Amino acid sequence: MHRYPFTNSIWRQHDTGPLYPSLNISESADVVVIGAGIAGLVCAYELQKRGKQVTLLEALEIGHGTTGHTTAKCSVQHGLIYQKLIRHFGETVARLYYEFNAEALVYLQNQVNEGFDCDYSLEHSYLYATEPNDELVKELDAYRRLKIDGGEATEEVNHALPFTIEQALVIRNQGQFHPVKYLRELADRFVRLGGKIYEQTRALDVSQGPRPIVTTATGRRVQANQVVIATHYPFNDLRGLYVSKFSVERSYIVACETDTDPLKGMYLSVDENSRSFRSYEENGKTYLLVGGEGHTAGQEPDTRSRYVHLENDAQHHFGTMRATYRWSSQDLITLDSLPYVGQMFKREPDIFVATGFLKWGMTNGIAAGILLADQLTNRPNRFSELVSPLRTTVKPTDLPAFLKTNLDTATQFTKGAVERVLERQDVQDLQLDEGGIVQVGHHTKGVYRDLENRCHVVNLTCTHLGCTVKWNNAERTWDCPCHGSRFDTKGTVLEGPATKSLTYSKREDL
């Protein structure tokens, strides 16, 4: 039988960085940072440079999270964001958001000038539409009103892309890089400054009160003056009802080798069926990275088809070879499209969060790390109010998004119970390398039959809030359609907000 390739990110294929130990003894620090993605590592690195003693906890390994599963475009051009921000908040807020991300680009460029090895290159960033698009016209007007270095670029993009486009915008001199190499540079320099990194160390709880204590899955504890939660989706989301403030979207990327010259520039369509294009060169090979096919996390029954569509587009338009690498990532969309960076809860001044980067975590993540480092060292930062997690939770303009997000969660909760019955199949019908909802004895379970004909059985109830997880046939994972938690075939947490594994057993008699 034809077996679909396992997914693998191009950024992680040749990662030769060191493995850091897991935490096996309780300790204390000035600051604990939870999450070794781009926001967490920038924050930890900056704090350590400024004289703080920082301990960094990572549930998996550096580069295994969202930062290692991105297109790695470093740009202030975040889709159609500026006309939306002007409409909802006015020009002052829209300009602040632009500067928040623009200063992150300057910070990254300065690090490259200092010797950070992360395959960084300057590229122009383009938005385009293949059909007339009123929103793109409004975005061009926003560029003019906010004095953004860019503008109309239709002819430019028509010369660059192998298909006809209707309209395009450009922002000049943006960047692209290798995100895992960047994380490794940050980690190495952080440790050389005296910082501590513990991998395979999942945080389960953060206590309330002065000098909060972080408790890990193995029962170890780290006490600190402040705690920063930079875990993409905050694992302690329930205390601040963050669970009601996000929608979670999954999107897909393929890297296809090509014999043609690298594509100059970074491209994103604003069409209904959006596509992202950029090139990457490695070991004498040129790859075209094609992204898109986004959908609400956990709610696509055939994830493999998403990769097929991207690969077909790459071959049809650019004449590439078949995809060498395939990977996906999840993004948190806040109600008002601004990140949450700063003090997490009103009555807990020592717990901070960085999350909700709206698919643009490279610049938003760097900016968040800098902002948090400023806040924890009492330095003024003019962006604190802009992205404060304590801003008004639901404004009138946010109400439709709030209702849609929470109605969708309630729908998925109910739908999951029905699907356990309707989609249930006999375990004997499962092929090798296939998963599904099956009847095991008197119980309905999730089962994956591996390539050696062993069955891996999990409980279908997500350990976060009890929704029913669904099989992801491309990633070979169990995904929650309510809040985006993901588990491997043995029930181990891959992505939060869940912190506890699904109940698991291995069966060779099914």
Automatic annotation (TrEMBL):
InterPro entries documented for this protein: FAD-dep_OxRdtase (IPR006076), FAD/NAD-bd_sf (IPR036188), Rieske_2Fe-2S (IPR017941), Rieske_2Fe-2S_sf (IPR036922), Rieske_Fe-S_prot_C (IPR005805), YhfW_C (IPR038010)
Listed PROSITE patterns: RIESKE
The entry's keywords: 2Fe-2S, Disulfide bond, Iron, Iron-sulfur, Metal-binding
Rieske domain span: 424-510
A Pfam family matched in the record: Rieske
Name of the protein described by the UniProt record: FAD-dependent oxidoreductase
